[in-house]
Amino acid sequence: MVVYCFLIVTFATKETPLYKIPFPAITICPEVKSVKRLLNFKDLILKQNELNLTDAESKNLQYMTQLCENPIGPLQVRNTILNDTFTNEFFETLDEVKVEPGFFKCSFLGQNIKNCEDAFTPVFTDEGICYSFNILDRGHIFNELVYHYENYHKVDKDTMSWNMERGYLDNSNIMTYPWRALLSGASNGFTVYLLVVVDNENIDFMCKQIQGYKVVLHSPVRMPRLNQEYFRIPLDHAVVASVQPVVITTSQEVKTFDVAKRNCYFPSERKLKYFRTYSQQNCQFECLTNITLDSCGCVSFFMPRENSTKICGLGKYKCIKEAERALMLEELNKFRDSVKVEFVCLPLCTDLSYNIETSHTKWDWKKLVGLMVKSENLDDYETHASSLTVYFRVNHFISSERHELYGLSDFMANFGGLLGLFTGFSILSLMEVIYFLTVRICCNVRLYGRWRGVDN
Fold first, then answer.
1. What predicted TM-score, i.e. pTM, was given to this entire model?
2. What is the pLDDT of residues 177-196, one digit of tens each?
């Protein structure tokens, strides 16, 4: 039990069924960032060490270094800002050379999904191009001023049936978007098989030292940050993720409290420039974007931005890292110096997150694939497959509730109870006190007046 001034956070008195909350959004990012025959990062690094890069190769090297780990040694050319032409070419290049994750087969709630690729939405994150299942459309996450590249992060489904504060509408169908699970267990979760057939040299350890996939489970209304939290799917492994939802709600009575006292925001109470709804993660992401823009004159490619905002090149790498450190110090100073609450990214009063436990094992997938497809050419390629299963651990969960510690009725009951316990005080005693302090005094004054009149 945690007490915040006049508020208290306790466990709910009854369990909540799973269908009241959405199934987590699943974002998968391949560690292989480019098809080598289209863009060979290793060769570009070797060429730049030999001072033998063409202008086109130098540009591609600048692009890929945005996604790859820092190469050994300095690059020949470090553009500070990608101008408008380069910006379009940057996203076009990433789109052209991307490695398809190969969604071979997937199922949800025990039913096979006919077109597995259609269940995933391509999105731009800090890991480049990733693929999200059960995420909300960009129009429900970002404001209209935010620039998006072509049809990335477009979800052709009605996403108005749920929001963070009210949950699902009462008249929503069971199979509404974002999807929700009805029961717990692996058979009622989501499973995807990732099959990638590439040539032997396609995996580029110069770009990423550890191969496989990065995965993050998050709320459908939240943009994933793969550099902050993730778990891995190694190549040729089967990974299982068991999910426990964490929900905190807040009573309407608490909404009358000052924000500084309840230490949280309702989504409608604070507006953000880039994001349609407030959350602590969105607020911090927007602060990072603003600090980066003010310090560097540009933003990273994955940050929300207007069409006129420049994207930072590799020459701004140090400036971007300093902006991240400045944000951490600024947040620390805000809490330490008790800055006005409107400048602090507080948590949501009603929020949803997911606790995850993962396990994995090596997977002899070729036996399975050999039964499903012709495998006569598998030996000619370096073929890798992995699987991911995500499911809820229990059918019901206990949420946390934030409510007022002492309301008026609670105060009166406790006050009267304590007085009654220690002094024999009761409501009748209170009435007697009021009587002797008001009516009795008035009567005495009147009688005294009559008595004085008789004496005179």
1. 0.84
2. 999 998 999 999 999 999 87
